[in-house]
Amino acid sequence: MEVEEAAAARQEGLLELYGSFREMFEFFCKNTTIHGTVRLVSSGGTRGKRALWTLLLLASLAMLYWQFALMFSQFWAYPVVLTMSMHSEPKMFPAVTVCNLDPYRFEPVREHLEQLDRMAEESLSFLYGSSFSSERRFRRKERSGNGNGNENGNGGNCFYKSYSSGLDAILEWYRFHYMNIMAQVPLVTNTSQHQQHLQDMIYSCQYDGEPCRPRWVDFVHFHHPAFGSCYTFNSKGTDPFWTATKPGIPYGLSLLLRAQAQLPLLSPLAGLRVLIHRHNQSPFLEHEGFDIRPGIATAIAIRQVGTATPVSPRAGPGPAFPAVNYHGPALLSFIPCPPCCLH
Predict the structure, then answer these.
(1) Backbone angles phi and psi of 156, in degrees to 5
(2) Looking at the DSSP assignment, which residues form a beta bridge with residue 102?
(3) Quick check: 236 and 222 in contact, CB under 8 A?
(4) Quick one: 276 exposed, middle or buried, by C-beta within 10 A (0-12, 13-18, 19+)?
(5) What's the rounded Cα separation, in Å, for the pair 26 and 319?
(6) Sign of CA dihedral 231, 234, 239, 240
C-alpha cells in the first residue's frame, strides 16, 4: 500500500524523478526521435536484434563525433583556398629612360656651367686656401659701383643670409645659380641634334638577343636640369619590334653604356640614372628613378602587376579649377601625382 502511494505521488509531481537509470533509459528510447532506439527496449525483440541495433547506434554516434572533430580541426587551422591559372602571351616591353647625369654635355649651357665652376673654385680657394689648376682659374671682371655691397644690378636691396660654414654658403649659392642656368634650356629639343651624343654614350645595344635597329630610331630625347641628357626607349609602346615573347635577361634589353661625366664641381652624382615606366608616361626621375654606378654590370628584373580599380566617386575639377596637363600628352603615375598637384 505504501509503494503504490509513493508511485502515485511521484507521477503527480511537477518534476518527474526516475527511480533508476533503467527507467530513464527506457523513457528516452521510447520518446526520442532517433531512429531505431525504440527497438533497444521493445519487449518483442530478441537479444541478437537488440545487440545489432546497439552496435548501429554506437557506430552512428561515433561517425557523428568524428565529423565534428574534422570540422573543428579545419576551422582552427584557418585554411586558405587559392585558385591560380597561368597562361603565356606576348607582352609589350616597358619604356626605359636612361640619363647620363651630365648636364655639361648640353651645348647651350656648357659655357655657363664651366664659368660657374670657376667661380666656385675661386670662392673655395679664398675661404679654405685650396689650390686649383691655373687653367681653370677665373678672372673677375672689373665692375663699377659704389662698393657698399647692399644693392644689386637693378638698384634693389640684396638678400643676405647667414650660414654655419662657408661650404654650406657656397653650396646654396651654387645651387641657386645652377638652377638659373639650367632654366635657360628649352623644354623641347631637336632629337637629330643629339644623335651623336647618344652614340657616344651607348657602345652596344641588344634586344631579344639581336642588335638594336640602326639610326637610333627607337628613342626619345629630352634634357633634365639635374640628370642631364635623357633617352627613353620604346616610349610609345606601339612598335612590334619591342614585343617580348620570352622572360629572362637574355631576351630583354641589354645596354653597354659609357658613364664618362664632366660633373659640376659640387655635385655628388656619378654614373647613370635609370627609370622603367609605362608607355606614354612622363618619367619623374626624382621620385621613381634609381642610380647605377659606373664600372659594374647591373641586371634588373621586373614584374608587371595589373590592378583593376572602380571608378572614383570623387567629382572632377570644377569650372573654377580647370584640368591643365603641364606634361604634354604623357600619362602620370601614382607617385608623382602629389608633386604635380602642388605645382
Answers:
(1) -90, 170
(2) 228
(3) no
(4) middle
(5) 86
(6) positive
Residue 289 pLDDT grade (very low, low, confident, very high; cuts 50, 70, 90): confident
Measured CA to CA in angstroms, residue 16 lies from 8, 10, 32, 41 at distances of: 11, 6, 17, 20
Q: What is the mean pLDDT of the chain?
A: 72
Q: Can you give the pLDDT at residue 130?
A: 60
* Amino acid letter, residue 302: I
d(CA 197, CA 262): 14
Residues 230-267 as b/e (b if ≥16 CB within 10 A, e otherwise) read bbbbbbeeeeeebebeeeeeeebbebebeeebebbbbb
Q: Are 19 and 30 in contact (CB under 8 A)?
A: no
Strands (E), 225-307: 228-233, 243-244, 253-257, 272-277, 290-292
For 306, phi and psi rounded to 5 degrees?
Answer: -100, 135
Each residue's pLDDT tens digit, 84-93: 887 778 888 9
Helix H or strand E encompassing 113: helix 107-128
Cell numbers given for 113: 656651367
pLDDT(308) > 60: yes
Closest CA to 257 of 276, 241, 273: 273
- Domains of the chain (ranges; CATH) run 2-76 (no CATH), 91-105+188-292 (2.60.470.10), 107-137+161-184 (no CATH)
* Residue 220, number of CB atoms within 10 A of its CB: 15
Lowest mean pLDDT across 197-211, 254-268, 281-295: 254-268
Say whether pTM exceeds 0.85. no
Nine-digit cell at 327?
606634361
Which H or E element spans position 253?
strand 253-257
For residue 290, give every residue at least 6 positions away whose Cβ sits within 8 Å of its Cβ, in sequence order, or none.
273, 274, 275
Nearest to 216 by CA among 196, 189, 236: 196
Give the mean pLDDT of 15-29: 74
Q: Coil, strand, or helix at residue 181?
A: helix
Phi first, then psi: what are they for 297, rounded to 5°? -100, 130
